[in-house]
């Protein structure tokens, strides 16, 4: 027992020594960044060299010598166990991320681990302390041989892990695997993000992506193109180096030339590559420590990290040991009997993911703080920040107006689903959506309308108009500005993460969209008119049914239930053109800006109830008529098929429907008549325009008749005076006519003779014109009687001139 405790203590001390050595290298990198020995550019270049030069060199020299046919065939169980460990970790990582809403890098942290550094350091520690003998037992051979076999097993496992992590890791840690939103594809193919090259580069591109499926491309060519794009995206320097190493290892001449001792190529080329490869581990850990200082990053998800390490160092060893025990107990001779092999298979899933994730993130070109890039633009480039915010305002408003997100056309639902819908392959999600929403939803004045985006709950609960200042709103605006600025400053120091972005998620009322929809509704209602008050009364269902598509800016979009609530609230509170009784579910349109606020009366409720009943009866009548037509078609079809019994049954059904239709039409006519009378009576009350016109005309007529000039005595006097004046005027005209000078008879005779001459002259001219017309007609008739002779050919003429022989 004391010896076992001592052995465990030696193993623990050896493992602690290896871990401390790794932490010291990280500490050196952290201090170098703090002291200014390494700047951000140098850090980036070193990290790039590690991934594109040093790591491929390390993979080539470590994998190549052991990638022989013998190892790949005899140790195939290692490949199986390595793939099994990654698959199990993948499902655990996906489940953890969806349950805890963890960052995307946690999935890669679950799947991929450093399969070389920690296991090899642990193996070296066990060799130095001599505890390796406990693992291999008495029949395990020498310690040196056991350690050599263990390194071989670990490198074969590393071969599988390295090929997997650099083939799939960039995609998993990038943006391709993060598409679990299920958002409609219409949005994601319309608005696409672009890479942020500088602070003035737009966050997204509005260029539309052409749908290749709609183009007339051959199927084979399309498949080949997609395959090549996938291969080109998956290939990277580490993966290429691993493939080259396996190829060189399997081809005997190349394996002999490059990996056997004493060969010129092995002593020169392979050795130089080995020198480069040995730089990777230390430099990568050094750069990782430097990044911890220069890039504080986001707040670490404690729960996800805890689950990750429990899975990596407790769950996975337990699973692998259990599977190994089951394999040994079930098929003892299936796997080579080697205690060192059992030990390696048990620790295949163990290893820290930090260095691996750093390498993958460099290959995937991921940003450490995506949202922080946009937030820093507020100070470093205010113009670019404002341009990006304005771009987001237009884009989100149009996305909502087109109905491309589930909340409606007036309300934006901001969450991770919305961000995922803007993803662009090989580029990723847009940056800083949370900061854009924060800026767009923060009022700049004491009026809520100064923010184009208003939280839904706040919009519905505001007691006064959004266009009027409010004391409480000023406090909220100031607290939002100060609070957001303070939180952003804390993020720059790395003291807090991006949890503030999650506070921005929620439903937002887009005020410009609401204003445009309200204008359309008011114009439609004004143009609608009506003979009575029923045309101005709605419930929420009929309001949405009537204006659902008419209020939309784009065809195909319609108001959601939430949109209808928001629009009615805006029309009631901010425009003053409707009054609402939410308890009775009544909406009544009134004159906008009217000084007298009309309330909803019991008459309005009754009229609305009858209108709803009338609409339901009309729907029933339409449905019954449709069924009667269907029965008639079926009867004709059955008669053509000579199925008289079925036709008779259908005929009875049609008769019943016709009877029901008569009842419904009677009820419909009764309700229509009653509603018409109610509307007529409602229109005849004193407050109606007709009665007001009657009252006005009556009062005006009475006022005119009360004038003294319209009294009977005054009118009689006026008429008598007018008669006297007319009589005097007639006498004057007669006197003037009698006092005229008579005309001269001689002059009258001369005028008569001159008139007779003019008459005779006109008659002569008429006779001459008639004679001329007759001569022309005669000439035309003579010309028509003339005959034109056609000349004949000479031969025919001579033949006619010859004498004709007469038969005897």
From TrEMBL:
At the top level, the lineage of the source is Eukaryota
Extract the signal peptide range.
none
Show the stretches that span the lipid bilayer: 12-33, 45-63, 75-95, 229-252, 302-327, 339-360
Q: Name one GO biological process term.
A: vacuolar transport
Which coarse location class applies to the principal site listed for this UniProt protein? membrane
Report the membrane topology from the UniProt record.
Multi-pass membrane protein
- Pfam families referenced in this protein's UniProt entry, alphabetically: Mem_trans, Snf7
GO CC terms, sorted? endoplasmic reticulum; membrane
**Residue ranges of region Disordered?**
760-808
Which InterPro entries does the record associate with it? Mem_transp_PIN-like, Snf7_fam
Q: Where does the record say this protein resides?
A: Membrane
Compositional bias (Basic and acidic residues) at which positions?
A: 764-787
Q: Which residues form a coiled coil?
A: 607-645
Q: Does the keyword Transmembrane helix apply?
A: yes
Keywords carried by this UniProt record: Coiled coil, Membrane, Transmembrane, Transmembrane helix
PANTHER family (UniProt xref) = AUXIN EFFLUX TRANSPORTER FAMILY PROTEIN (EUROFUNG)
The protein's name in its UniProt record: Uncharacterized protein
Q: Which organism is it from?
A: Rhizoctonia solani
């Amino acid at each position: 027992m004391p010896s076992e405790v001592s052995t465990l203590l030696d193993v623990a001390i050896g493992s602690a020594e290896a871990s401390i050595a790794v932490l010291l290298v990280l500490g050196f990198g952290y201090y170098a960044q703090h002291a200014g020995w390494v700047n951000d550019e140098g850090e980036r270049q070193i990290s790039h060299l590690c991934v594109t030069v040093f790591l491929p060199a390390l993979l080539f020299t470590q994998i190549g010598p052991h990638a022989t046919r013998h190892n790949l065939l005899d140790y195939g169980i290692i490949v199986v166990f390595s793939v099994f460990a990654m698959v199990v970790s993948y499902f655990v990582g996906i489940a953890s991320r969806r349950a805890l809403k963890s960052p995307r890098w946690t999935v890669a942290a679950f799947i991929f681990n450093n399969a070389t550094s920690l296991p090899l350091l642990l193996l070296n520690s066990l060799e130095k302390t001599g505890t390796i003998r406990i693992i291999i037992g008495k029949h395990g051979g020498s310690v040196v041989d056991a350690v050599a076999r263990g390194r071989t097993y670990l490198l074969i496992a590393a071969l599988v892990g390295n090929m997997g992590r650099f083939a799939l890791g960039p995609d998993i840690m990038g943006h391709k695997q993060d598409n679990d939103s299920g958002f409609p594809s219409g949005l994601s193919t319309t608005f696409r993000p672009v890479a942020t090259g500088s602070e003035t580069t737009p966050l997204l591109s509005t260029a539309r992506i052409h749908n290749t499926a709609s183009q007339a491309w051959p199927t084979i060519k399309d498949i080949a193109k997609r395959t090549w794009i996938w291969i080109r995206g998956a290939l990277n320097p580490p993966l290429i180096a691993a493939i080259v190493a396996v190829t060189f290892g399997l081809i005997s001449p190349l394996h002999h030339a490059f990996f056997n001792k004493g060969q010129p190529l092995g002593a020169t080329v392979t050795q130089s590559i080995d020198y480069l490869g040995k730089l990777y581990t230390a430099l990568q850990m050094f750069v990782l420590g430097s990044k911890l200082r220069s890039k504080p990053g986001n707040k670490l998800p404690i729960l996800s990290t805890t689950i990750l390490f429990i899975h990596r160092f407790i769950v996975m060893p337990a699973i692998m040991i259990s599977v190994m025990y089951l394999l040994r107990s079930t098929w003892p001779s299936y796997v080579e009997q080697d205690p060192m092999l059992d030990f390696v298979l048990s620790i295949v899933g163990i290893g820290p993911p930090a260095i691996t994730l750093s390498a993958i993130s460099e290959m995937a070109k991921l940003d450490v703080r995506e949202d922080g890039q946009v937030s820093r633009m507020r100070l470093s480039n205010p113009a670019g920040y404002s341009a990006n915010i304005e771009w987001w305002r237009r884009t989100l408003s149009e996305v909502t107006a087109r109905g491309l997100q589930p909340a409606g056309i007036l309300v934006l639902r901001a969450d991770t689903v919305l961000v995922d819908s803007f993803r662009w392959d090989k580029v990723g999600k847009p940056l800083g959506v949370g900061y854009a929403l924060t800026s767009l939803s923060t009022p700049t004045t004491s009026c809520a309308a100064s923010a184009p985006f208003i939280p839904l709950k706040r919009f519905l609960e505001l007691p006064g108009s959004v266009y009027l200042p409010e004391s409480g709103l000023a406090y909220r605006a100031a607290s939002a500005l100060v609070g957001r600025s303070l939180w952003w400053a804390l993020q720059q120091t790395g003291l807090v993460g991006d949890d503030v972005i999650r506070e921005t998620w929620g439903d937002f009322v887009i005020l410009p969209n609401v204003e445009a929809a309200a204008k359309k509704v008011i114009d439609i209602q004004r143009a609608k008119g009506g003979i009575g008050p029923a045309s101005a009364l709605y419930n929420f269902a009929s309001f949405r049914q009537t204006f659902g598509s008419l209020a939309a800016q784009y065809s195909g979009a319609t108001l959601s239930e939430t949109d209808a609530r928001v629009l009615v609230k805006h029309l009631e509170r901010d425009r003053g053109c409707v009054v609402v009784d939410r308890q009775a579910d009544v909406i009544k349109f009134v004159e906008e800006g009217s000084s007298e606020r009309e309330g909803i009366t019991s008459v309005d409720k009754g009229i609305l109830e009858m209108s709803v009943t009338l609409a339901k009866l009309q729907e029933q009548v339409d449905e019954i008529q449709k069924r009667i037509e269907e029965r008639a078609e079926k009867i004709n079809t059955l008669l053509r098929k000579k199925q008289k019994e079925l036709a008779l049954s259908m005929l009875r059904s049609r008769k019943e429907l016709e009877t029901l239709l008569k009842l419904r039409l009677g009820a419909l006519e009764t309700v229509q008549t009653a509603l018409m009378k109610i509307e007529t009576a409602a229109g005849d009350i004193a407050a109606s325009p007709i009665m007001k016109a009657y009252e006005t005309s009556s009062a005006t007529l009475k006022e005119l008749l009360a004038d003294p000039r319209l009294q009977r005595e005054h009118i009689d006097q006026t008429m008598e005076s007018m008669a006297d004046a007319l009589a005097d005027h007639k006498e004057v005209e007669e006197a003037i006519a009698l006092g005229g000078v008579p005309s001269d008879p001689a002059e009258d005779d001369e005028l008569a003779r001159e008139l007779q001459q003019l008459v005779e002259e006109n008659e002569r001219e008429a006779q001459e014109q008639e004679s001329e017309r007759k001569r022309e007609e005669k000439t035309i008739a003579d010309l028509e009687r003339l005959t034109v002779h056609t000349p004949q050919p000479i031969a025919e003429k001579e033949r006619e001139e010859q004498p004709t022989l007469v038969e005897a």
